[in-house]
Amino acid sequence: MNIYVGNLNYNLKEDELQQLFGQYGEVTSVKIITDKFTGRAKGFGFVEMEDDEAAEKAIQELDGTEVTGRNIKVNKARPPQER
Q1: How confident is the model over 23-46, as a mean pLDDT?
Q2: Are 6 and 72 in contact, with CB atoms under 8 Å apart?
């Protein structure tokens, strides 16, 4: 399951996000989205988890929790929309 994680601290690293979600199950990938010109994090990212049940539990328990001073938003990612 692909999970959207928003309102991230701009200094949060992908390995820290992987550790956070890894408490709930195996994380297959983590990607924090960065600005292509500055390289600075945009404050959101995506976590991929193999087990849907573990992913649902992570979403329920992590949504709204404080991570490095910010309350993160966690939910199931939606497919990208065409422009």
Answers
A1: 96
A2: yes
